Amino acid sequence: MTHDEEKLLRRAIALAAEARTGGDPPFGSLLATADGTILAEERNSTLTDRDITAHPELKLARWAARELDPAAAATTTMYTSCQPCGMCAGAIARSGLGRVVYALSVEQLHALKPPGRASAEPPAEGPALYAEARVPLEGYW
Ligand SMILES: [Zn+2]
Fold first, then answer.
1. Order of strands across the sheet that contains 38-43
2. Across the strands, what pairs with 100?
3. Using alpha carbons only, what angle is made at residue 94 by residues 13 and 47, rounded to the nearest 5 degrees?
4. Ligand 1 mean position, distance from CA 16 (Å)
5. Beta-carbon count within 10 A of 9 CB
6. 42 phi and psi, to 5 degrees?
7. Residue 104: beta bridge partners?
8. What is the Cα–Cα distance from 17 to 31, expressed in whole angstroms?
9. What are the tens digits of pLDDT across the range 15-74?
C-alpha cells in the first residue's frame, strides 16, 4: 500500500470516529478514483436512520451503481475502516467497483467486541420446489 493510499484509509478511519461521535456504530468508508480523488464519503448511520442496511460500504456501492457508468466504477477503490460484511460485499460486487482496501479484518473486529456480539446467520433450508421456482426465470436472460 502506498503512502497516498494510507492517507485515504486514515480518512476512512476518521469517518468511523465521526460516526461514533454522531451516535452510530464506528464505521466509515470512502470511494476514490485511481489518482486518489475522493468521489464520495459515508459513515455508518444504522442507529440514527433506524436502518439496518445503512452501512457506509453499502451506501457507497448504491451511490456508485447509480451515479457512475460501469467503466468508471471499475476504476474506483473503496477505502473502508473495516472489512465489508457479507451484505456489503454482495452490494460491492454488484456495483462493479474495482477494488476494496480495508483497515480492520472481520476477525480483528470480532476480537474487539465483547463475547456474544458477533451476528449469526439464521438457519436456512433449501433448495426446494425447483420445478415451480424456475418458471418465472425461464427466458428472462
Ligand atoms: Zn456492511
1. 38-43, 28-32, 77-82, 99-104
2. 78
3. 45
4. 13
5. 18
6. -145, 155
7. 82
8. 17
9. 999 999 999 999 999 999 999 999 999 999 999 999 999 999 999 999 999 999 999 999
C-alpha cell at 128: 426446494
Per-residue pLDDT tens digits for 106-128: 999 999 998 877 677 789 999 99
What are the grid coordinates assigned to 3, written together?
503512502
**Which of 57, 107, 121, 138 is an active site residue?**
57
Residue 62 CB-half CA count within 13 A: 10
Q: What is the spatial distance between Cα 19 and Cα 75, in angstroms, rounded to a whole number?
A: 27
57 catalytic per annotation: yes
User: What is the pTM (predicted TM-score) of this model?
Assistant: 0.91
Which residues partner with 79 through β-bridges? Answer: 30, 101
